Amino acid sequence: MPTLESEKWLQRVFAASGTEALISAYDDWAGTYDADMLSLGYLHPAVVAGLVGRYVPNLDAPILDAGVGTGILGEILSVMGYSNLVGVDISEQMLARARDRNVYRELRNRVLGEVLDFADARFGAIISTGVFTVGHAPPSAFDELARIVRPKGYLIFTVGTLAWEHCGFQEKIKVLEADGRCHAVEATKPYRPMPFAQTEGALTAQAFVYGVGARSKSVTG
Question: In percent, how much of the chain has pLDDT > 70?
């Protein structure tokens, strides 16, 4: 069950004003983040891992974990056999925890929404959990993410329902679709990503799969 401390951390990160405050909050939270999120019943990593298994059959495909946090999702994917994982995050302390898992080939401190120092079409898929929500990564981050995914690759990400509808994420994706840069493949039903949280437990999110470039059913490598 959730603790008072886990609720306090949620309140702090969602109340953070600006990138520096958000970095500070996640740096301070890194030590207990895994246990706190487990107590909240955190579902995003399991949902996205299932979608990766469905759409990325090549276990050697290069995958970017955008907003890697402590690497919870990467560890799940490693157990599933994925071996070519790269991660970025704004928090050095979160990245330190992710490094301790020894499942990522590379980890970089980067800010989603800014230019990313990866070559065009570097990755077979990009995954992101819990990052596209109120006060976190902006809709503009999708421009860079779409740039660094290979044609016939995938963007697999979660978005809070309120953020999707009211914070520009849905509109941004529609622009990318209109430009032919991506196309809708799958959207899950709305679910509660932190069902045991007292303050956030009733809020819902969805996981989305978008293909990049020409339509494809799988990543070839």
Answer: 95
Reported as a pLDDT band with limits 50, 70 and 90, residue 42 is very high
Q: What is the pLDDT of residues 125-139, one digit of tens each?
A: 999 999 998 778 999
Quick one: residue 13, left, alpha or beta (phi over 0 = left, psi -120 to 50 = alpha)?
A: alpha
pLDDT tens-place string over residues 26-41: 999 999 999 999 999 9
Domain regions of the chain by residue span = 4-212
Regarding pTM above 0.85, the answer is yes
153's tokens: 């690759």
The torsion angle over the Cα atoms of residues 180, 181, 187 and 190, rounded to 10 degrees, is -110
Total residues found in the chain within this entry: 221
Q: Which two tokens stand for residue 221?
A: 């490598």
Question: Would you say 65 and 128 are in contact if contact means Cβ atoms under 8 Å apart?
Answer: yes
**What CATH class is the domain 4-212?**
alpha beta
